[in-house]
Amino acid sequence: MNTTASRISLHGGHSGQYCNHARDLLEDIILRYIDLGFKRVGITEHIPPINDAFLYPEEKALHLTTDDLHKRFKDYFKNLNNLKEKYRAEIKIFVGMETEAYTGYELHVKQLIARFQPDYIVGSVHHINDIYFDYSREDYDKAAAICGSHDALYEKYFDLQYEMIKTLTPFVVGHFDLIRIYDPAYAKRLLNPDIQQKILRNLRLIKSLNLVMDFNLRPLARGEKEPYPTDSILKRAKEMDIPVVPGDDSHGVNQAGGHVDRAIKILNTMGFNTLWPEPVLLT
Predict the structure, then answer these.
(1) Does the model's pTM come out above 0.85?
(2) Which CATH number applies to 26-270: 2.60.120.1440, 3.40.50.10420, 3.40.50.10800, 3.20.20.140?
(3) Which site in 46, 203, 217, 264 is 20 to 30 Å from 237, CA atoms measured?
(4) pLDDT, tens digit, for every residue of 84-116?
């Protein structure tokens, strides 16, 4: 067991410059990681939408367009690559992006990868039936109603995740069980045999492709009791020897590096290897 694991986050660094539900300058977030003693960090801004239908509500409120966000994303890569060089003596920055899994994402994401050449990608699912389910409880319940039940919502989510992993081969699989975000009964629901079968199928795929699971700490920042994935899934990942790496999923300076020490302690206690792998582009 490695008891001296270095601090790392491979999912996060969202800033107010490039994400309207985040805050602060990207450089200030990088400086915060340096102040905290991080030697490696992955910055993974959200990709721009494929069309205006997938704008966040706050982006619509600001009358932003898809074109605006594509221009902003271009600036993000330019700025982050400059910061990577500027602070190379103090921290190793991996330039990344967080994907989506809505209609048309396959070609859209691959075009973005070809254009911007990120160091790696985080593969995430935030939409079911093209509804952004984790933005609000209202949207979550709407997605569940369209699926027919909350159990069906979970099954749909893990099916979409499976297809996303096969299609994009993301180095990091983001917040594996995000689908539980507004479900107080998630611990029991995740043990539903039909849902369990899909979870195990997805874990086997992650293992077969030598991918990494995101130990996503954003729930702790919201005062919840455990990160993504939940303990039952985390134990399965350990049994299968799947690498699990902290991701603060930070959205501002005050969240950068948050709860990473706690995450390392949890992973060490469970016997995970905390000699973190280097991100690479696999798509």
Answers:
(1) yes
(2) 3.20.20.140
(3) 46
(4) 999 999 999 999 999 999 999 999 999 999 999
